[in-house]
Design goal:
single chain; about 325 residues; mainly beta; 19 strands; flat
Amino acid sequence: MILTWQLGFSKEQHAAPERWIPAQVPGAVQLDWARAEAWPPYWLGENSLQYRWMEDVWWSYRSRFVAPRAEEGGEVRFVAEGVDYHFEVLLNGARVHEQEGMYRGFHVDLTQEAGKEVELLIRIRPVPKSNEEADDRHQASQAFKPPVSYSWDFHPRLIPLGLWREARVDVLPAQRIQSAETHYELSADLAEASLDLAIRSTSNPGSRLRWSLIKPDGGAEILLAETAASRESSLRATLSNPELWWPHDHGAQPLYTQAIRLLETPPRLRKLDAATPPLSRGAGRLFWPHRFARTPGGAQPVDSRRRAARHLRGGQTPEAALLDGTRLVFQ
């Protein structure tokens, strides 16, 4: 369900905005306000100076709608994939969630509100600053925001805030995969990968879980394991001769497609989901490529961290490139 949003600001946390304007989600408060005021492009000349005050006020996103109904045993959720940066969520005036960080999504259960008109309000704190003296990128030292937006020698100061990723209402069926996380370990000779899959699901008696891989060339599906579905299931499998992912200039970067299916009784495909990708959103961990890479002169140590993490210094993390929910790499 797509929501319609309004945006306003106040100088105090609990003060109501004096004015509401239409908001685009995904987006940023600066873009919405500039659009409403018909400001010239922020990237032209010194126009970015107009936006400076926006980093020191409280911004509120508001959406009013009638919550849909779910089937018996199902759920209705408000899902936000990313809010920049420190914020709280109010449902009909009551705080139901608070979070700091733009790269982790969240959800709010609306099942009990089915058929009722509700108001969701997301209130965003002013831009995080580790100090008030520097007035440059050093103010970002205690926040996971791109320091470049705090000003750099080549970049004017313009610090975004807002619902920068999709926000919607999902109606979930009674039988579904709730979460899935994959871990793997390569053998010392890199000839075998041991895989472990942890799944949480809701299902009827007799339903089954099927776990498979599709090779990077898109060939036949490889069945890894199948088991009776339960609330919490653990599956293990071994893959011989996995196609390895190598750093740039040291080899190919093959990607396996991973599929986890919940097969109902009678059997029919109801839910297709994928396991946690190599960069875990929850734990924030990176799996680095092999300590040794192929070179014309043989196997040599390679500091792949420097290349893999280069984009993390100052600029925004290209999350869409790192978080591919259906892909699995053996590094």
